[in-house]
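Hello Y.,

Per our agreement to keep a running log of every chain we model this quarter, I'm adding this entry. I've kept the format consistent with earlier entries: sequence first, then predicted structure.
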Amino acid sequence: MSIKETFLSLYREYVSRSGSEELLEWLQKTDFFTAPASTRFHLACDEGLATHSVNVFCYMRDHFFDPDTDSMESFALCGLLHDLCKANFYKRSQRNVKNDKGQWEQQPYFSIEDQFPYGHGEKSVYLIERFVRLKPAEAMAVRWHMGGFDETAKSGGYTISNAFERYPLAVKLHLADVASTYLVEGGK
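Predicted structure for the entry above:
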């Protein structure tokens, strides 16, 4: 099964909220299923974004799901869509790089072309909510999934700490994102 088929299967199995099919239709018109997860860090390759999204959801489900307190639909919405902000975000480019023989040659790479610079987590929340209404815990989880790597969190204050204290789903998504990036994907 391709990564796109895996993503679609998980999404359709767990997400049934009003607007979910419209979101999926829009998603398939973007480069989400072919885009990289990053420009040079983890899964900087074709289909990296969809692969990372599936990895995050599966890690959350397998390590943090508590049937007494958690919703599998919330896990799927957050895990599969936390990086929705990266759809139509990367551009395939070329650059000159010296090869092993010291000669210049063209090599492909991904660059960022952010057409809607709204931030990272907040942009994902915005894009999801164009179609599907998120619960407060889901919105907080997606917004703060970057944890201390988020530019806003780096500026100080207690907002992220308050979000993590009030919304365990936010902590679970952040931990699954970090574990997927560095343990499952090896930071590659």
